Amino acid sequence: QQPVQSPQAVILREGEDAVINCSSSKALYSVHWYRQKHGEAPVFLMILLKGGEQKGHEKISASFNEKKQQSSLYLTASQLSYSGTYFCGTEGQAGTALIFGKGTTLSVSS
Amino acid sequence: NAGVTQTPKFQVLKTGQSMTLQCAQDMNHNSMYWYRQDPGMGLRLIYYSASEGTTDKGEVPNGYNVSRLNKREFSLRLESAAPSQTSVYFCASRMGGSGANVLTFGAGSRLTVL
Which residues pair with A109 in a beta bridge? Predict the structure, then answer.
């Protein structure tokens, strides 16, 4: 079942902050975050595992609430390059496939 | 390293025609995936292969077949294309199993069915 992302769209000025949320109705092993620019493939941002392990880019922060099956991606001091569509992908059990949400479109202007 | 390579990048088909999308990875990954992307729908899983020799249906498998030819290659076949299969198709791969395994995507294949 697809995870639910919110909000669907965010409009920011450079330097502003944003939070993107991802929620699942099922117990999760991991949550993944990807960003996609128009016409390009999704690019990895962050993985959060059950138990607390995280792996990702230094400038990206995220949280994973295992009990609530929710994750949030925190984008601080946004830059023009942050614009794109952000997808969360959830994995119910280790080694199964990632199921992605419908995405959150972020637009950053100067 | 090339990563994940998909061919073709663009294809136009007529309704009822068949075609195969090819995907190959050179990262020694065990797991491979096919997703389709439509406006407003996100990335939807068509089929995946957790390891060589296994394949499983995803969220939207109807109208598609897959073959895990070997560890490197995972193809997606449309036997009788329909306009509803007009989409951008992404192949992806990762190591698989437990742990923080990053999913690497190919550049995508844009398919139009007339």
Answer: A13
